[in-house]
Amino acid sequence: MLTEDVFRDLMAGVCAPVTIVTAMDGGTPHGTTVSSFGSLSLRPPMVTVALGRGSRLLDRILRTRRFGVNVLGVGGEEVARVFAGRGEDRFRGVAWRAEHGLPRLDRVVGWAVCELDRAVPGGDHVLLMGVVVNADSTGASSLVYGNREFGTHSEHARMPRVLNDHILAFTRH
């Protein structure tokens, strides 16, 4: 018989990117840690994010129809914990700025500005589909969460970028 604990343990073994999804509402920044972020489409560029039905951030995104995705990198573990907590002012003590009208955290490895295309209910969550209207990436390895631990997706994250590029070029020929 499938229990919540069995399902939770199964999903704990699946590595997921660690992101902070943000919204701006009345000039006030809001955000939460989200590991259910993924690519949906190339044409148009779209991503998905799942938020719990009771999420205050979900209400703000549904109202403003916009959200930002901050992809954390190595060293972002504490920021992920802060934004996963229940604290009211998660932005206190975290370096950020408004970019394209959304809260962007400093020192992230990726950033996407999204316009909400649709929201689809699914169990105790709502799947948000967003069209990416602006983005950038540093190319650095993203932080992942798997087996209830933070890490990176592979050992190559520790290699110098130039070495990675040479290895990739060699494997293509």
TrEMBL record:
Residues 11-152 form the Flavin reductase like domain. GO terms for molecular function: oxidoreductase activity. Keywords: Oxidoreductase. It comes from the Bacteria. InterPro entries: Flavin_Rdtase-like_dom, NADH-dep_flavin_reductase, Split_barrel_FMN-bd. The keyword Lyase does not apply. The keyword Repeat does not apply. It is an enzyme of class 1 (oxidoreductase). Its EC number is 1.-.-.-. Transmembrane segments: none annotated. This is Flavin reductase family protein.
